[in-house]
Amino acid sequence: MSAIGLPASRRRRTLRKRFFATPLQAVVSAVSLAILVTVVWKLLNWAVFSAVFTASGGPAACEAASGACWSVIAARWRIIFFGLFPYDEQWRSGLACLTVVVMVVLSCIPAFWTGRRIAAVWILGVATFYVLMKGGILGLPYVGEEQWGGLALTLFIFVSTCLLGFPVAIGLALMRRSELPWISRTTGMIIDAVRSLPLISILFTFAVVLPFALPDWLQGDKLYRVIVGFALFFAAYQAEIVRGGMQGVAKGQDEAAKSLGLGYWERTGRILLPQAMRNALPATINQVVISFKETSLVIIVGFFEILASGNAAYGTGEWRFAYVEVYAFIALIYFAFVFSLSRYGAFLERRMSVGQR
Prior knowledge:
0% strand; cell membrane; globular; mainly alpha; membrane; MetI-like fold
């Protein structure tokens, strides 16, 4: 039981025992509390009390203040969220981001946890996102992928990576467990080779090097090549997570399914994979969170995702001093998405009682 739920007298005794049991412990606790209060006060004073929030005063008002310059966000938020997307069409980019959020939220509702419903949600959501971003139909002006940027591009890369990576990961995990040595060993070599390479090198290879080895008709746009490389990297790690979940399923269940006359695909789809994905849920959530944060690496190969958009937001001469505020705002965006994913993962673990006996 935590100290908060105890009676007042017992709570005081508990706190005294934990933090002030000896003179040395009392000094350490007091010094630590003083440092914590000082840091929190300075942070609040910089971020809130002495900060400038409106863009009316411009950079001059920020330079005269002693706190944070949130005016740069008020003045340059369009660049951060929409990047190079045409100004008059930025509503499409915003609506596309909202579509992805709604798609993910619907995917988290248990009522949609059937194969057909979840497939319908993702197919409809991705199609809506793509139509809104690219246009060319329904009276929407065409916008090429080279003009995509900001938060919409980050979400597109993340969703596409998961959409392509999960099926490939399951396929690789099953192939590595194959009873045919040449299949299992070849798959293991592929997985280990991909996992031994840094993600940046894979992105650079797919974005820059691969076009030299492919015919023109097979090259495609650089964005889609990078997404394929990202999905391959994700699949290699997720395949090992899924394989670990499969190893946690008792072999007797597979033998019992064989005795009932079930074929390989029935045993795999109805018995092995559901239990394996349940066992692998904590590590899967962790891998998804990591993949969302790693989308920032595409800036290395020239994409204008949200981090590059933030660099452009303060890159002009008048706002160059406000880079800390821009990065703090982008960090808050990443935190909102990642914290939501992690909390939902914790909810799933409690719902499915993963790791409990």
